[in-house]
Amino acid sequence: MSDLQKLFEKAAKDVMSLAERPDNDTMLRLYALYKQGSEGDVKGPKPGFFDFVGSAKYEAWEKLEGTSQEQAMKKYVDMVKKLAG
After folding, report:
1. Torsion sign over Cα 79, 35, 62, 48
2. Tens digits of per-residue pLDDT, 53-68?
């Protein structure tokens, strides 16, 4: 396992214990970076119109299409570090 992968996994655990819950836009960005870093480009059909949360998550992840998993992991780790202060 690479050092980046270890940092990414640690950041995923650290985000759960942040002192304060980030705002919704930040949460969507974290979600999208995590999914892009762990799975790559978005897959599967977009959730239905009335699934507002699912649609928002899908769209946030979709915006990162073409971003490498390594780049997404780095951005995720950096963002969690900033949030943790």
Report:
1. negative
2. 999 999 999 999 999 9
Amino acid in position 1:
M
Distance of CA 26 to the CA centre of its chain: 9
Say what the pTM is: 0.93
Domain count along the chain? 1
- Nearest Cα to 55, choosing from 40, 45, 65, 64? 45
pLDDT of residue 50: 94
Backbone angles phi, psi at 17, to 5 degrees: -115, 25
**Which two three-digit tokens encode residue 9?**
């996994």
CATH of the domain at 42: 1.20.80.10
Could you tell me which residues come within 8 angstroms of residue 56 by beta carbon, excluding any fewer than 6 positions away?
Answer: 28
Q: State how far Cα 24 lies from the chain centre.
A: 12
